[in-house]
Structure formats: structure tokens, C-alpha cells
Amino acid sequence: MNEIQAENYSVFFAEKGFENLSQILANGGYSKIFILTDSNTTEYCLPYFLQRLETTLAFEIIEIEDGEVNKTIETCFEVWSVLSEYEADRKAMFISLGGGVVTDLGGFVAATYKRGIDFISVPTTLLAMVDASVGGKTGVDLGGLKNQVGLFANPQMVLVDVNFLETLPGNEMRSGLAEMYKHGLIADISYWNRLKDLSNFTTNDLELLIYHSITIKNNIVLEDPKEKNIRKKLNFGHTLGHAIESYHLNNDEISTLLHGEAVAIGMILESNLSLQKGYISELFYNEIKSVLSAIFPQIQLSEKDIHKCLRLLVHDKKNELGCVNFTLIKENGEAIINEEVSTEMIINAFTEYLS
Ligand code: NAD
Ligand code: ZN
């Protein structure tokens, strides 16, 4: 698999990834390596990573607790403190080995420690491979709100190795898959068609599909790295998806949804908005709904729940009640940004989903 050239770094796969990693470590004049893991990646990913890592440099492992609740400034403080205790200097190399929580937080810690040290992302979840580790966004949550503190910073390289996915639970695999379906719907209809029938591909095809997804995301990011316009295409499914995710997160009576699971529902709802706007046919909407409903959990919402989601949506988007901007899709696998949608249309979309 060839490398993917991102802004000022590359994404390398498997063997070539480890070769490039060794080269960067050997030629970068680094003083020491720090490897950030979480409680799961220490167990499942670190032994394989260390076995394949070729370096003469000394290294230290810094482990954080796993999970979104730990993607906070308090955890950053702990990691900065460990770096400081070990007297990490500006030539220290910081490697994040984990899912999106570790790569987002690790990138932020590295980009701010001593005004920025070099870092490398090694994503170990499907979501982090196809989404979180490419595009330069790093950061942490604040007061339960996602990604409130952070900055754009690029790694020296990203290493993608599908072997890490062998231990990833099924629901976490599905969560990443949702973003891959999104890539097809917003940018490449033939990719959507390929992903439609999961029985069609094997684990061997997985690397190729990941490659394809990263390429789609990277091409969009390259056009608009700071999300001024085009990059908003990647928000398809996320406007309502985020509201549903937050609603589940803040409601103790129902089980939480993974990000990708919420985004899958968001994509069904926002496809319905695209249908109501006349951008896609009923046939295509039904196809999207049936493909995604077969893979991702269905949710039940009462009228009251829908209104709570709507309130979260307005809060999230800082928009006046009645109009929220959406990214919608067209029939040919293309996204349209900054689409105004009324509350009534959103309620229609929920009603159709729940029927
Ligand atoms: P995560 O990092 O919480 O990982 C999910 C779970 O899988 C964790 O419990 C983790 O310990 C475990 N895990 C990781 N690798 C494993 C492996 N190989 N085997 C077994 N278990 C493993 O979550 P995620 O879904 O990877 O990422 C979600 C985060 O990514 C969110 O915080 C989101 O905001 C962020 N994100 C960032 C961007 C971006 O552009 N920066 C894009 C999308 C998502
Ligand atoms: Zn997402």
C-alpha cells in the first residue's frame, strides 16, 4: 500500500509504516521517546508495537485510563507532569498509540508541551484510522462538551496497521465503519456501493478500504484544512448525530451510543432531510436507511425525546431556533454544505425514522 501524502506529513501502512517510523526516529536527533497508551492499548497493542519498533533510543510508557470521560485537561496535566518529571526536552518524541481519545489528547499534549514537540500517531481503532488521526485536529473535552479546547497540529507521520484491529470489539469496529459509509455518501458513490454489502469483503480487503477512506478524508482536508467551508462536508450525519449522542450521554436511563452508532442514525435522518429538499430520490433514501439500519442499532425516541434532541442541537450549533445549518447529500455521492433546514423538516425526519 502506497503512502498517502497529507498536509506536511504522510500516512504509511504496515511494513512501510514501521520502516518510516524507524527512519524518523533514527534521523530526527531525538533525545527520548514517550509512548502514550490507554489501559486497553497497553494490553492489546503495546506488545506488538514494541516488538516491531526498531530504535536505539530509550523510551517511557505513559498510560492513561481509557474512555471519552478521560479526554480532559486534567489528564493532559498528568501527562505533561510525567513528561516534566522525566525531564523531557524539546527533542523528545511523543507517540500516541490508541484510539481517537489517545490520538486527540496525545497530539494536543505534544503540540503544547514546551510550545510543541514532535509527535506520531499510531491509531488502533478503525475510527481513529479512518478519521481521528488524519486532518490535524487535536484537543480535549470540557465540562462534558466535546473538543472544546484544542488546536490544529500535524504529526510527523501516521502509522496504520490493520493488525491492531484484531482485538477491537465488534461495536467499536461498527463505529468506525459508520465514518466509512459517510465517506462514500459525501464523496464517492462507487465506494458506498462497495460497502453496501459487507458479506462482499474479507479482512484482507479491510486495508484497502481504510486506505480509500483516509484518501477521501485527506483530499477534503487538503482543500480546507481549517474548516472554513469544504471541510464541513465531513459533518454529514454529525449535526443530528451529535445531538443524539449527547442526549444518550446525558440520560442515565438509556445506554450510551458510540459516536459512529449515533452518526449512522444521523446519516439516516439527514438523508431524509436531503430527500425533503429534493436532492435525493425516495429510492436512494430507502437504500441508505435499509443498509444502515441492518448494521447499526435502532433507537426509540418519544416526542419529548425528539424535542430534547432539538434543544441540544440548537445549543450545539449556536443557532436561532427554527434554522440550523446542515451538510446534506445528493444522489451522485456529493455533499452540499450550509443547507438551512427548518425545525418542521427535522421533526418529519425523526417521525419517518421511527415509523
Ligand atoms: P477510543 O479512543 O475511546 O477507543 C475506543 C475503545 O477501544 C477504548 O476503550 C480503547 O481503549 C479501546 N481500544 C483501542 N484500540 C484497541 C484495540 N486495538 N483493541 C482493543 N481495544 C482497543 O475511541 P475512538 O472511537 O477510537 O475515538 C473516538 C474519539 O476520537 C472521540 O474523542 C472523538 O472526538 C475523536 N475523533 C477525533 C477526530 C479528529 O479529527 N481529530 C475525528 C473523529 C473522532
Ligand atoms: Zn465522526
Automatic annotation (TrEMBL):
Q: Which cofactor does it need?
A: Zn(2+); NAD(+); Co(2+)
Name the EC number(s).
4.2.3.4
Q: Which domain of life is it from?
A: Bacteria
EC top class named in words: lyase
Lipid biosynthesis keyword on record: no
Annotated GO CC locations: cytoplasm
Q: Which GO terms describe its molecular function?
A: 3-dehydroquinate synthase activity; metal ion binding; nucleotide binding
Which Pfam family, just one, is annotated for this protein?
DHQ_synthase
Residues making up the signal peptide according to the UniProt record: none
Every 3-dehydroquinate synthase N-terminal domain range: 62-174
Q: Name one GO biological process term.
A: chorismate biosynthetic process
Residue span, 3-dehydroquinate synthase C-terminal domain = 176-319
Which keywords belong to this entry?
Answer: Cobalt, Lyase, Metal-binding, NAD, Nucleotide-binding, Zinc
Ranges in a coiled coil: none
NCBIfam families registered for this protein in UniProt: aroB
User: What is the stated purpose of this protein?
Assistant: Catalyzes the conversion of 3-deoxy-D-arabino-heptulosonate 7-phosphate (DAHP) to dehydroquinate (DHQ).
Protein name as it appears in the record: 3-dehydroquinate synthase
Which organism is this entry from?
A: Paenimyroides tangerinum
